[in-house]
Amino acid sequence: MISRFVISVCMLLFVMHLYGCTASPRFGTTEGAPGGPSPSEYRGRTPVLMVEGVASYYAHDFHGRQTANGEIYDMHAMTAAHKSFPFDTIIRVHNLSNDKSIVIRINDRGPFVEGRIIDLSLGAARKIDMIDSGTVRVRLEVLEWGK
Fold first, then answer.
1. What angle do CA 71, 53, 84 make, to 5 degrees?
2. Which domains does the chain have, with CATH numbers?
């Protein structure tokens, strides 16, 4: 006969397994674009760090897949991948060729191409008009460090 302790342990393991299979938490939507910070909330904020380099973007091949922080990648969100900035870091990205900017949140790791400093989501890339060129020189302004 199986003891109550063994049954309790099995039930606990089963519940833990089910909990581990649940979706990761989603971040709220802001100004019509899910997953990103509200640009108005960061308007006028002094950057704590500025870096210049080349940005690229990623889209369809990764849409719906899990990002490095556990979220599901939404190519329409205002998010990006960076090699080392903490997750949930808020960054203003300036396209240096046309002076357009967007406020985004880091939720993934990358880019993994030499010479690039950030990989934007398709939604963020559209906002700063870099879709046709694929890559563009940008200035990153860290507005708030993530956890």
1. 40
2. 29-144 (2.40.40.10)
pLDDT, tens only, 17-56: 555 554 444 443 334 445 678 777 888 888 889 999 999 9
Tokens of residue 93, six digits: 């990205």
Strands 49-58, 116-121: pairing is parallel
Task: Report the alpha-carbon distance of residue 97 to residue 61 in Å, rounded.
Answer: 27
Query: Structure tokens of 4?
Result: 């109550």
* Helix intervals (H) in the chain: 4-20, 122-127
pTM, entire model:
0.73
